[in-house]
Amino acid sequence: MTASLLMASVGLWFVIGSYISYSSRQRGKIDLADYFLGSRRINGFVSAMTYSATTYSAFMMVGLVGLTYRYGVAALGFELTYLMGTVILLVLFAPRYWIAGRKYDLISPSELLSFRYENKSVGALNSLLCIVMLIPYASVQLIGAGYLVETLSDGSLSYTTGTVIAAIVTFVFCWWAGLRSVARTDALQAVIMFVASLMLVGYLALKLGGGGFHRVLVAERSDLLRLNWSPSFFVGLTLPWAFFAITNPQVVQRLFIPKDCVSIRRMIVGFSYFGFFYTVICCILGLMAALMVPGLDLPDNAMPMLLKEVPPAISVVVFVSILAAAVSTMNSIVLTLSNMFGRDLLKAYNPGLSEERELAISKIIIVCLIAACLLFSQLKLDLIVVLSSLASGGLLVQLPSIIGAFFWKKSSAKGAVASILVGGITVGFLTVANLKPLGQWPAIWGLLTSSVAFVLISKKTQPPKGAESFLRELKEDLTAKFGF
Questions:
Q1: Do the domain assignments include residue 454?
Q2: What separation in angstroms does the CA of 167 have from each of 47, 178, 365?
Q3: At a CB cut-off of 8 Å and minimum separation 6, what does 314 contact?
Q4: What CA–CA distance (Å, rounded) separates 119 from 413?
Q5: Is residue 404 part of a domain?
Q6: What is the H or E stretch that residue 383 is in?
Q7: Domain total for the chain?
Q8: Are 309 and 207 in contact (CB under 8 A)?
């Protein structure tokens, strides 16, 4: 694929996306709810697409394809477990977040914790945890874009060029209209992701003999059709992602944006269909890559090498879809983290800060976060793998305080603070030291220690005075609006 073809395809995508982003701007005065939540008026289809595009990053068409290339159908089990967990969590938590957000005018996920536990330190600590854990994860999106551009252009375009392109697109898609812009460009990018994957799998199926693909697979690589993961490996890899829907703030914030109950239902159903088919397609592509480009030392190279087996017209669409997946995830992370920084750190400890000033500072933070991710991506550290693992495990330690906020009236602010601190330190130490006590991954121990700390300290301390009324009002609204 020539450098000119790559740049032309990126240019076309950028122009269309920029137009959508620019036209999404709200005329007149823009407040925080508009910039970060689209005024809570996003319809079901766009909500489903932005949730899907935010959730499914470049990991799918690069990482999951490579994982399937290496391990076979075990990777499908891992990803479908994540999908099932996400759908269940959305059914349980999406209505609760939506009701609480509207009822109490909450904007960020951490702000909900501060409100529920009646302690700004809970939200501040939670926001710091998310910022520390998610900057490396966001940087991975730029790293993936850089390697993809460099590989597909055969070195005509540099790694740095790829990362800069992704960073610029992220900035433009975020800046003009905030969530309105991100949500609508995400809808475009989700469609590109799905259509491109269908085109690629269809072409390769024909190239491998149409309906005889499975027979070739059974004959030549039957080892990929057997489960080959140990229980500890499966649980360690799967558990942090199984709770992704309520521990990653960029997707949690999406639960505030649907305009009504019908839109929430459509968001969940739309994401379920998108996630299932996109997951199956990516795993099939991994199996196809194992047949067509065998013997790769680095499984993550399976997709770039596979794209060299198809016509440029198809490979360029797939290339743009992978870049779109990376950008859609990164711009959502950046937008949410900037909101959490302004809302849960600056505003919480400076109550006199005006909304206009808070929004202006948050927009500056967007630039700072993108710049930090871009600089971090240039280091090409081997440590990035460790940091990505640390991110998923570190975010998991929020789980006890989140569940307690919605389901346990005796949970306390001190219990939540201790839970996040103890769990975060545990995951950080074990990950950096590369330790797996009793063969279990750091995320398992982080969740265990955070849960124990949360329960024990909550039992010994006083719950917030408004906890019981919060849960009662939430229950009443759930019954009235959703029938449960």
A1: no
A2: 24, 16, 14
A3: 199, 200, 203
A4: 6
A5: no
A6: helix 383-396
A7: 1
A8: yes
Q: For residue 25, what is the enclosing H or E element? A: none
* Helix or strand holding residue 411 (H, E): none
Residue range 382-412, pLDDT digits in tens: 554 455 666 778 899 999 999 999 999 999 9
The label of the residue with tokens 């909450």 reads: 106
Place of tokens 């346990």: 408
Which amino acid type is present at position 86?
A: T
Residue 246 placed within a domain? yes
C-beta of residue 68 within 8 angstroms of C-beta of residue 283: yes
> How many beta carbons lie within 10 A of that of residue 78, not counting itself?
22
Domain limits at 178? 3-380
Is residue 406, in this structure, part of any structural domain at all? no
- Cβ-contact 209, 216 below 8 angstroms: yes
pTM of the model: 0.93
Q: Is 258 helix (H, G, I), strand (E, B) or coil?
A: strand
Q: Residue 83 is part of a domain; what is its CATH number?
A: 1.20.1730.10
pLDDT digits (tens, 9 = 90+) for 72-117: 999 999 899 989 999 999 999 999 999 999 999 999 999 999 999 9
- Count other Cβ atoms within 10 Å, centred on residue 218: 11
- State how far the Cα of 61 lies from the Cα of 324, in Å rounded to an integer: 11
